[in-house]
Amino acid sequence: MSGTMRAIEIREPGGPDVLVPVERPRPVPGAGDVLIRVAYAGVNRPDALQRAGSYAPPPGASDLPGLEASGVIAEVGPGVSEWSVGDSVCALLPGGGYAEYAVTPAAHCLPVPEGMSLDRAACLPETYFTVWTNVFMRGGLKAGETFLVHGGTSGIGTTAIQLAHVFGARVFATAASDEKCRVCEGLGAERGINYRDEDFVDVLREAGRADLVLDMVGGDYISRNIKALKDDGRLMFIA
Q1: Which residues are bridge partners to 55 per DSSP?
Q2: Which pTM value belongs to this model?
Q3: Which superfamily is assigned to 4-122 in CATH?
Q4: pLDDT, tens only, 196-210
Q5: Which top CATH class is 128-237?
Q6: Are strands 33-41 and 68-76 parallel, antiparallel or unpaired?
Q7: Which of 98, 120, 125, 184 could bridge across to 192 with cysteines, CB 3.0–4.6 Å?
C-alpha cells in the first residue's frame, strides 16, 4: 500500500471549481481507528458550506471535505477487534472522505447491508446515525406514538419519515410546497403539511398532538412546537 493517496482539496473558498485533485500522505489509523479504502463518499450540506468557507472542520479533523463514505477496511489500528481488513463498511467520518483513504473511529462504522451497493451505502451514515440517535435513542419514539418532523424532504427529514413509519409511529411532516408534501406522504407520512398555507400547530392539535417533534429550524418554531406537543411530549433540536 502506497504512502500517498489522491484526494480532493479545497483550494480556497468558492464554488465547485475550487475543488482540486491533489496528492496527500495516506492517513494512519490510531488506537481505536480504522483506515478505509474509500469507494464512494456522500455529499452533504456541510461539505458545500466548508467549500464556501462557512464551516470549519472540528479541531484535529482532516481539512478535506467528506463526512461519510463507504468502502473496504484497509488497516485497523491498535485495540480494534470488531473489524478486519477486507470488511465492507459504511462510516461516519470526522472529515476526509473526498480521498482514496480515510480514517475514522471503528465505532463509527456499520457493515454494508446485505444486497446494498457501496454507492447507496455511502449515503446512509450521516442521516441515519443522526435520526437514530435523536429520534429513537434520545427521543425514545415508540410504535403508536405521533411524530412530527420539520423539513420533511431534507436528508434528515426523508430518513426520519421512513424510519418512524417502519417502526410503527404516526408521522407528520412539514414541507414548503404541496408537491413536497406528497413526497413526504409517499415515504410514509400520514400527512404532509405545507407550512406556507397551513399552521402545523392546528394540524397536530386536530390529530391529538405530537409525542415527539424533531426540529431543524429553531427560532419562532420553538414555542409553536411546544403548543403542538402533548403533555410530557419530547422536543429534539438539531438546528
Answers
A1: none
A2: 0.87
A3: Medium-chain alcohol dehydrogenases, catalytic domain (3.90.180.10)
A4: 999 999 999 999 999
A5: alpha beta
A6: antiparallel
A7: 184
